[in-house]
Amino acid sequence: MDPKLLEILVCPLCKGPLLWKREAAELVCKADRLAFPVKDDIPVMLEEEARTLGVDEDA
Fold first, then answer.
1. What SUPFAM superfamilies does the entry give (predicted)?
2. Which of 9, 58, 5 minimizes the C-alpha distance to 36?
């Protein structure tokens, strides 16, 4: 993931910062507890494509 891109990407719902989880290839919004997938190095920033984090998952 390009560091410059990470600097400008925000959660599409709350406009908050995102955390890059390299091992899962996801961008995580801690506030909304959503994980947005990154497919072929392209972030999919659609709410309907996001995965809700489980209660046992660390955001």
1. Trm112p-like
2. 9
Does 13 map to a domain?
yes
Q: What is the pTM of this model?
A: 0.90
Show the tokens assigned to 25.
């290839």
What is the separation, in whole angstroms, between the first and last Cα of the chain?
19
Q: What is the pLDDT of residues 6-18, one digit of tens each?
A: 899 999 999 999 9
Residue 39 resides in a domain: yes
Which domain, by its residues, includes 46? 3-52
Q: Which residues share a beta bridge with 37?
A: 26
CB within 8 Å of 11: residues ≥ 6 apart: 17, 18, 29, 31, 32, 34
Mean pLDDT across the chain: 93
Query: Could you give the number of structural domains in the chain?
Result: 1
